[in-house]
Amino acid sequence: MVKKNTMGCGGYYGVVLVLLCFGAMKVRSDSSDHKYKSGEEVPLYANKVGPFHNPSETYRYFDLPFCSPGHVKDKTEALGEVLNGDRLVTAPYKLDFLSDRETEVVCKKSLSKEEVARFRDAVAKDYYFQMFYDDLPIWGFIGKVDKEGKADPSEYKYYLFKHLHFDIHHNKDRVIEVNARTDPNALVDITEDKEVDVDFMYSVKWKETEIPFEKRMEKYSQTSALPHHLEIHWFSIINSCVTVLLLTGFLATILMRVLKNDFVKYAHDEEAADDQEETGWKYIHGDVFRYPKQKSLFAAALGSGTQLFTLAIFIFVLALVGVFYPYNRGALFTALVVIYALTSGIAGYTAASFYCQLEGKNWVRNLLLTGSLFCGPLLLTFCFLNTVAIAYHATAALPFGTIVVIFLIWALVTSPLLVLGGIAGKNSKAEFQAPTRTTKYPREIPQLPWYRGALPQMAMAGFLPFSAIYIELYYIFASVWGHRIYTIYSILFIVFIILIIVTAFITVALTYFQLAAEDHEWWWRSFLCGGSTGLFIYGYCLYYYYARSDMSGFMQTSFFFGYMACICYAFFLMLGTVGFRAALFFVRHIYHSIKCE
C-alpha cells in the first residue's frame, strides 16, 4: 500500500517508466530464449500476406488458398501485436530442430478457376508472405510476373512459386538465423483461368554458426547502420546543428542588442519625462497579460500538448535502453497505449491548473475538453479506418475483444487519472504571476501589414524547424510506411532535441516582433506558430506519398493520410505547447526587467 502524498508526480511516473523498461526487457529476453533438442519441434507461424508496396493492407495467410494444416490454431497475441496487424497461425511446414528435409510435399492441391484468379491477382500486386520461426521473421514473395520482351500487359505471364527452401543456422541448441528462398525452377503457370494441379513442396537445410544467441537480432538492425546510411544521418544532424547555431546566434545577438537598447531607452524616458508617450512593446504592458479568448480550449490544448511531450520523452527513453529492437512485435504500440493512459494525469493537472490561473470557473467542462481534444479526432479516424479495414477483410481491422480492452484501459485508467490530475491542478492554488497589471479596457491593435498576420507568421515559424528534420523524416516514413528498419534512435533523439530548440527560439523571436508592433494578442499566436511544423510535416506526407512511395488503393491511401493526420495533429499540440511555454518565459522576463506604471 502506498501512503497518500508520499510520492510526487515525477516519482510516480519514474517508477512507471522503470517498470515498463524492466517488463519490456524481460519480454525481450524470455520471448524466444529457448533451447532445443535434436528432433524437437520448433514453432513456425504463418503471419500475413499483402501487397509489398501497401504496408497497411495485409490479410491472413490462409486467405489465399495455400495448403492448410488439418487444424489451424491461432497464436495468442499481445495487445501491441494485434494493433500491428499480426495474426499468427500454425504453418503447414515441419521444421524440427536439426532435421534436414529434401523436397517434402506439403500437400497436393487442385486449384479451381477462382483460386487461380485469386493467386494471379496476388502475384500481379507483388504479394509477399511473412512467417515467424522461433520469433525470427521470414519473408518471401508468393510468385513472379514475367514481363520480359512484352510491351502489352495482357501478354504478361504469371507464375506461382510452389517450392520453398529454408536455410536455418544454429549455435549448439539455439536457433540463430533463418532464411527462406523460392526455387526459380519450381513454377506453376497461373496466367489463364483454368484448373491447375499444384504440388506444394519445401526443403530444410541446417547449418552451424558461431554467432551467439544474444547477437542474433543484430543483422536486422545493421541495415540502418550501414556506412552510407550513417553518412546521410550525420549530414542531417550537421545540417540541423548548423541551423540551430545560426538561428540561436542570430536571435541571441539581435534580441539582446535590441532589448538592451529598449531597456536603456525606456529607463532614459522614465528619467526624462514621465508624461512622454510610450512606444513599442512597453506601450502594451497593460494588455500583454490579458487572458486569451477561448481560455478553456487554450488550457486544454496546453494540457494535451504537455501529455504528448511527456509521452514522446518516455518513448525515447525506452528506445534508447533497447526495448524497441527489430521485430519486437507490437512493443511500440503497447508502449504508446500504456504510457498515454498513464500520463493522462499530466494532461488533467496541467490543463486544470492553468485554466484556474486564468480565472476560469467551469473546470469540469475544461477537463472534458482536455480528455477529448486529442482522443476525439483519433477515435473518429479509427472508427472510419477500422470500418474500411473490415470491408477489405484486412488484418488491420481490430477484433471486438481488442476494442473492448482499449475501451477498458480508457475507462479504468485514462479517465480516472485525468480526473485525479484535474482535481490536483484545481487545488494547486497556483497564481499566474503576471509582472504587470492588466488594464480594464484593451488597447486597439494598430493596422499591421499582411505579413504580420497569423498565417504568414505560421509559415515562417514552421519552415525552420521542418528544415532541421526533413532529412530524417524520409527514413522514419520508410520505416513506418515501408519495410525499412530504423534503429538509430540516438540520432533521432538528437534531431528531436534540435526540433524543440528551434521551435522555442523561432516562436520567441516572432513573439518579440509581434509585441514590438504593439500587437498584444500573442497567446494563441505563439501556440499556432509553435505547432505549425505539424502542418509542414503533413505537407511532406503529400510529397512522400506521390513522389517517394508506390502506395495505391483506397485502403492504403485512407490509412496513410488518416493516421498521419492524427500524428501531425499530435505534433501540432506538442510543439504548440513548447512554443507557448518559451514565449511565456520570454515575455515574463522582459516585462520583469522594466518599470511600468
How far apart, in Å, are the first and last alpha carbons?
A: 54 Å
Radius of gyration: 29 Å
Q: Average the pLDDT over all residues and give the rounded result.
A: 87
The general outline is elongated
H/E topology pattern = HEEHEEHEEEEEEEEHHHHHHHHHHHH
Instruction: Compute the number of strand runs.
Output: 12
In the predicted model, the low-confidence regions spanning at least 5 consecutive residues are 1-13, 15-31
With helices defined by DSSP (H or I, 4 residues minimum), what is the helix count? Answer: 15
- What can be said about the biggest beta sheet? 5 strands, antiparallel
Tell me roughly what share of residues is in helical segments. 40-55%
Q: Structural class of the secondary elements?
A: alpha+beta
Strand content: 5-15%
Transmembrane segments: 232-255, 297-325, 331-355, 367-392, 398-420, 458-477, 489-515, 527-547, 559-587
GO cellular component, one term: Golgi membrane
Protein name: Transmembrane 9 superfamily member
Family: Belongs to the nonaspanin (TM9SF) (TC 9.A.2) family.
Structure description:
Strands 1, 2, 3, 5 and 6 form a 5-stranded antiparallel beta sheet that branches. This protein has helices at 9-30, 79-83, 113-124, 218-221, 227-272, 295-320, 331-342, 344-357, 363-373, 375-392, 400-426, 454-480, 489-516, 523-548, 554-592; strands at residues 44-51, 59-60, 89-90, 101-111, 127-133, 136-141, 143-146, 157-161, 163-171, 174-182, 187-189, 196-208. It is of the alpha+beta class and 597 residues long. Helix 5 (227-272) packs antiparallel against helix 12, helix 6 (295-320) crosses helix 7 (331-342) and helix 6 (295-320) runs antiparallel to helix 8 (344-357). Helices cover 53% and strands 13% of the residues. It has 15 helices and 12 strands. 33% of the residues are buried.
